[in-house]
Task: structure prediction
Amino acid sequence: MNNIVVRSIERAKVSIIQGLGEQGTATVHEAQNRMGLMLPYMRPVFSGVRVSGSAVTALTHPGDNWMLHVIPEIAQEGDIAVVGVSAENSDGMFGDLLATSYKAQGILGLIIDAGCRDSQELTAMKFPVWSRAISAKGTVKKTLGSVNIPVICAGALVNPGDVIVADDDGVVVVPRERAAEVYDAGLQREENESQKRSRLAAGELGLDISNMRSALKNAGLVYVETLNEYD
Result:
């Protein structure tokens, strides 16, 4: 699958995508059995933003952002661009000009396993980017890649149409086919956490709420009043 652009992809229901976004990366990651989380070096250019959308993917090559210019031609409103690179790279492949184009086409954000630049401008225009690095080093447009094929981005497999959830805690990928299932599991988790939060706020300990005491004792944890008692 070299040097191709796939125009049409399947996407999850908008309501499910939005619901996963409201849950956030931590809940979604736990809800799908701790799968799909990108490596923690992927950080937002500016904090305080959360996005969710369908992945439009691109495979690029180090120092070459040609395929990033193809993405807005085939993306739909509500998509998130996800860019993998054929070898490790931190060059500034994306800046305010491309962000202006992406925003005009309704693309909600960019996840790129490389660098971006114009961080002040991206912040001012409120276009969210999660990247490996921030670098002023520019790129060329010489080598073809592909758009809307499976890619590896920051250690995670992303297929076109998968749901992306990104916030200050990181970036998580939900396979499109599992999106509704993961959303339902997230709702159950939120309800459980809401009940625990109320009990913790009332003064109960997590040790008792989650029945940890016997397990800790069986594991060998011993309580003593002072170090002098421990021999």
In short: The helical segments are 14-23, 25-31, 71-74, 96-104, 119-124, 179-201, 206-209, 213-219. The chain has one domain: 14-184. The first strand starts at residue 43 and ends at 44.
